[in-house]
Design a protein that fits this description.
The protein has about 260 residues and is mostly beta strands. It has 2 domains: about 5-55, SH3 type barrels, CATH 2.30.30; about 65-260, Fumarylacetoacetate hydrolase, domain 2, CATH 3.90.850. About 10% of the residues lie in helices and about 40% in strands. The protein has helices at about 75-80, 150-155, 160-165, 210-215, and strands at about 5-10, 25-30, 35, 50, 55, 65-70, 90, 95-100, 105, 115, 115-125, 140-145, 150, 170-180, 190-195, 195-200, 230, 240, 245-250, 255-260. The strands form 4 sheets. Strands 7-6-17-11-12-14-8 form a 7-stranded mixed beta sheet. The protein has a 5-stranded antiparallel beta sheet with strand order 4-3-2-1-5, with no helix packed on it. A 5-stranded mixed beta sheet has the order 9-20-19-15-16, with no helix packed on it. The longest helix has 8 residues, at about 210-215. The N and C termini lie far apart (about 35 Å). The structure holds magnesium ion. Magnesium ion binds near residues 67, 147 and 232.
Length: about 260
């Protein structure tokens, strides 16, 4: 199964600046090998590298990250919220993006930072006024997202921008699996903290599926290629502490792992 990645040959770029001065390259991963491609979209096979020898960059560099709140029934109730009648949409800034392996920086001004494992949808074509049944034509593929949230600040502010907007609060990756390769019926999402399973749900349990989300969002906002949708988290969210390693696994998509460090 070809997995599309962005990478840099310099493994030692400052990890909290997602692209930094690194020269961005694109490739397809097969097993432990990656084949460089000329463009993010092409299928040509250029130079081959060992996956272990390169630094993975976030697989997309979105102009915006669209989040969906309360998209799983049990998660809405665990936070004491009603199930919404239509998708509850918020934005995370692109500066929050972090790659697989980057650190999540625990801000000094928060005392409660939660993980939220989510299926990520990467947009492939400019999308505006899309109907649900044609939404898949606008999807490049799927990836793993951690919608990291400073829950205390989200509650205090009464809105999401600060609580979900810190630098490194949107780990994404490690790669994009094209939508034709993904069997939605079987997609299972698990989040592990230090190896312990904390979230375990079928993506089928989403209240608003991917097509409905894209249709809803594109009624008011143009989605551009590389934009990222974080489709909501299942129940089991909980706190992180500096030193923790958090892993979002989606069967058939990948596993995104990040260590939490004190800011
Ligand atoms: Mg979320």
């Amino acid at each position: 199964m070809p997995k599309r990645i962005r990478f840099s040959l310099n493994r030692f770029v400052e990890p909290t600046i997602p692209d930094g001065a690194a020269q961005v390259r694109y490739g397809l991963v097969e097993g432990d090998t990656l084949f460089e491609t000329r463009t993010p979209w092409s299928e040509d096979q250029g130079a081959a590298y060992r996956l272990a020898d390169v630094r993975l960059l976030p697989p997309c560099w979105p102009s915006k990250i669209v989040g969906v709140g309360r998209n799983y029934r049990e998660h809405a109730s665990e936070l004491g919220n009603p199930v919404p009648a239509e998708p509850l949409i918020f934005l995370k800034p692109p500066s929050a993006v972090a790659a697989h392996g980057d650190h999540i920086i625990y801000p000094a001004i928060s005392e409660r930072v939660d993980f939220e494992g989510e299926l990520g949808v990467v947009i492939g074509r400019r999308a505006r006024f899309v109907r649900p049944q044609e939404a898949e034509n606008y999807v490049l593929g799927y990836t793993c997202v951690n919608d990291v949230t400073a829950r205390d600040l989200q509650r205090k502010d009464g809105q999401f921008t600060r609580g979900k907007g810190f630098d490194t609060f949107c780990p994404v990756g490690p790669w994009i699996v094209p939508c034709g390769e993904v069997d939605f019926e079987r997609l299972r999402l698990r989040t592990l903290v230090n190896g312990q399973v904390r979230q375990d749900a079928s993506v089928q349990e989403m209240i608003f599926p991917v097509g409905a989300i894209i249709a809803f969002v594109t009624q008011f906002m143009t989605l551009e290629p590389w934009d990222l949708i974080a489709t909501g988290t299942p129940s089991g969210v909980g706190p992180l502490a500096p030193g923790d390693v958090v892993r979002v696994e989606i069967e058939g998509v990948g596993a995104l792992e990040n260590r939490v460090v004190r800011g």
